[in-house]
Design a protein that fits this description.
Elements: H1 6-14, H2 22-49, H3 52-56, H4 59-72
Length: 73
């Protein structure tokens, strides 16, 4: 696998994954993007369909993200 670029390394370090080598940054780059991408598609589908049920299904995930973030600060 190729080495991670400086931008990729900086972005991953901003998420708290510090002190890793370039090979590891390159390996975790795309898996770290999967969850936000799934959430974005889910929200887009819910918005396009005008479905409150689909959008409300995202609420527990957003709440857990906020709770875990606040607990880590």
């Amino acid at each position: 696998m190729s080495a991670a670029s400086a931008t990729v390394r900086t972005n991953i370090q901003a998420q708290g994954f510090c002190g890793l080598d370039d090979e590891t940054y390159a390996q975790i780059n795309y898996p770290l993007r999967l969850s936000p991408a799934i959430c974005m598609v889910w929200a887009a589908v819910g918005t396009a369909r005008g479905s409150a049920t689909i959008l409300w299904a995202l609420v527990p995930f957003a709440a857990l993200g906020a709770i875990f973030y606040l607990a880590s600060v």
